């Protein structure tokens, strides 16, 4: 894989098919060391210039044929070696042994959303339920060093979003892990896009989550197995997170956080950026909050996301019961009767005596008394000296 | 004062002057029990219909004249009693004794901004420095039951805003008090608009702040002295807070909080609403955050406010030194050298070992060591086993 960011013009799927290249040849090129995304694009453009089916017999090409396409001698030799039948066989076995499956740019089940980005992956490796890429998806990203607040709201919002959309993240520490955890058991589930190979568990503490994702979700990577993980792979991974998703929710991110790269990519792909507000004094929120400044959509709960995609989302949530349950955890007046909620809301803004509450609520003293008692039992309010009540 | 919200058409200043009504007569009407804002508007409209100078001799009008304008017998009698020379004299003495001054709708020093609202006050009472109403102003409002976070960011943002704008609030507990405190000693200062009379200190715990405002700021009220404070006066007060200001910053506000009334009034007056983000799990922030949903401008610091009014604000802050000082309190990398800030920002996102920091920073080991030591001494970072550093 090359890390150069200059891009030759992108090759459409029909152009790629026109060259006659086979998915096996595309995989062989993709898995050849020293042949990067741009080299493959150049090969396809060359084939395109040579007419229909020019790359059909790529497996029979000699080193000179590859060099004619502008590749170096070393690249050409590696490709030829990598296209020998025994090499193809070895790769197939390796994929199979590791339980990984492949989808190429040429396949009917390649994710539609990735055709819309400027540098779509040629090959994707996966483990788990590929059907998840058919769902409308929302990415949730943020700092590895999440606060308790960040993890909690990420789990809640992920669980909420996954009632109607699949949650995409990067299986990193912190916000990513919380996003996967929150969405894992919800109807639309969750997809992890890895920076390393699809069989490479990183970071190690997410091992259990990784296996849960293999069982109940989907793990995707563009990176061939055995590729050594290096920093340059993270931005490449981030573009797939953004590319698979309608939008990216940034929960907590310090300035210069990697999560902001994903948000910037999302903007570049004409996707939406959402921000979960946090305290302006929190260094872990400030990078996210700066997107609010630039016009990102604030997210108080999943409805803010659904509202943005109401034209395209399934109208019925996958599992209304689970949705109700997820709502309840985020509402301060959940599990309260309407009278309890009324009193609770009065007390939220300022403490009141029972006399003041009688006037404000219009309840009889006896009924108000029973409502206050119930709120005390539910540990939602506190009684201070002089029968003054405050919220807990 | 009437509390009816239906409004007769508003009367322009030149229309009011056309009727020939004197400021003394306007004050007498305003201070007559049972004669509200709308009654005064009706009197002026009546005068307008009768031709130039029709109300010039209001002090000589008999009860029948007032009744001809549609007033009840009781109102008419009260007005006549209140316009007797000894009543005028008594009122003047009262205002003087209490150190309050008056500005009427007819006066050249009536606040320009209040001419633009649909129901401007006919009379304003004040103590302190009236010149402050000439400044561009920003309101800061929020819950009485502010959190520590709410009070802290309010003070910081008020101090920041008051470098170039006058901060308007309501001298209530919580956010209001923090706004006045933060802005009090800054160049553009602060105005408190009271719901009760300008000499009525409420709540009692803000007594010291009240006196500071009389000395160094401005206390304003529409309410005649000796008016008994009642809930209906608070929304009337809130309209003056919104009316005096280009925009309203909501810091913390629960659902249904009174601060949101001020924000709604601001929208009605075509002013801006700003919101200081907070945690979405905080019941005290949720009312404010819902304005973000509706498109309010997020405020991370005073620059977000200044940016909105860059076309109209003085380009030079009143006191650059104080501005610098106020900035420093809100920046996580304040008081750090550029090298210290660089390392600190690395560590904000994730912990690093000293080896990793050497590579990332490009600093020599010796220099990096001294930077880390300095950050440790400043208590900004923490050293964990294995020479791994995290932020504090």
From TrEMBL, chains A, B:
<dbReference type="Pfam" id="PF02481">
    <property type="entry name" value="DNA_processg_A"/>
</dbReference>
<protein>
    <submittedName>
        <fullName>DNA-processing protein DprA</fullName>
    </submittedName>
</protein>
<dbReference type="Pfam" id="PF17782">
    <property type="entry name" value="WHD_DprA"/>
</dbReference>
<feature type="domain" description="Smf/DprA SLOG">
    <location>
        <begin position="102"/>
        <end position="308"/>
    </location>
</feature>
<dbReference type="InterPro" id="IPR003488">
    <property type="entry name" value="DprA"/>
</dbReference>
<dbReference type="InterPro" id="IPR057666">
    <property type="entry name" value="DrpA_SLOG"/>
</dbReference>
<feature type="domain" description="DprA winged helix">
    <location>
        <begin position="329"/>
        <end position="386"/>
    </location>
</feature>
<dbReference type="InterPro" id="IPR036388">
    <property type="entry name" value="WH-like_DNA-bd_sf"/>
</dbReference>
<comment type="similarity">
    <text>Belongs to the DprA/Smf family.</text>
</comment>
<dbReference type="InterPro" id="IPR041614">
    <property type="entry name" value="DprA_WH"/>
</dbReference>
């Amino acid at each position: 894989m090359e890390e150069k960011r200059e891009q030759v013009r992108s090759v459409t799927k029909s152009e790629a098919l026109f060259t006659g290249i086979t998915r096996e040849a595309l995989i062989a090129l993709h898995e050849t060391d020293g042949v990067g995304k741009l080299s493959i694009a150049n090969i396809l453009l060359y084939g395109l210039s040579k007419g229909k089916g020019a790359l059909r017999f790529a497996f029979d090409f000699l080193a000179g044929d590859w060099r004619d396409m502008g590749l170096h001698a070393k690249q050409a030799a590696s490709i030829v070696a990598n296209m020998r039948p025994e090499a193809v066989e070895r790769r197939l076995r390796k994929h199979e042994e590791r339980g990984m499956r492949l989808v190429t740019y040429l396949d009917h089940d390649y994710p539609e959303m990735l055709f819309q980005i400027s540098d779509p992956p040629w090959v994707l490796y996966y483990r788990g339920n590929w059907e998840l890429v058919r769902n409308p998806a929302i990415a949730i990203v943020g700092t590895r060093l999440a606060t308790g607040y960040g993890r909690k709201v990420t789990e809640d919002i992920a669980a909420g979003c996954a009632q109607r959309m699949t949650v995409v993240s990067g299986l990193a520490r912190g916000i990513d892990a919380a996003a996967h955890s929150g969405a894992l058991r919800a109807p639309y589930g969750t997809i992890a896009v890895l920076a390393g190979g699809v069989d490479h568990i990183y970071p190690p503490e997410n091992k259990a989550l990784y296996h849960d994702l293999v069982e109940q979700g989907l793990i995707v990577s563009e990176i061939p197995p055995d590729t050594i993980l290096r920093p340059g792979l993270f931005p490449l991974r981030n573009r797939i997170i953004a590319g698979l998703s309608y939008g990216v929710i940034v929960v907590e991110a310090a300035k210069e956080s990697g999560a902001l790269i994903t948000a910037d990519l999302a903007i570049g792909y004409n996707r939406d950026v959402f921000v979960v507000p946090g305290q302006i004094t929190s260094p872990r929120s400030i990078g996210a909050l700066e997107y609010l400044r630039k016009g990102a959509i604030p997210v108080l709960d999943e409805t803010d996301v659904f509202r943005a995609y109401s034209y395209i989302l399934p109208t019925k949530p996958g599992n209304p019961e689970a949705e109700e349950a997820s709502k309840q955890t985020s509402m301060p007046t959940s599990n309260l009767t309407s009278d309890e909620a009324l009193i609770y809301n009065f007390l939220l803004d300022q403490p009141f005596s029972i006399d003041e509450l009688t006037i404000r609520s219009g309840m009889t003293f006896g009924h108000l008394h029973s409502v206050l008692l119930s709120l005390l039992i539910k540990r939602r309010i506190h009684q201070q000296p002089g029968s003054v009540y405050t919220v807990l």
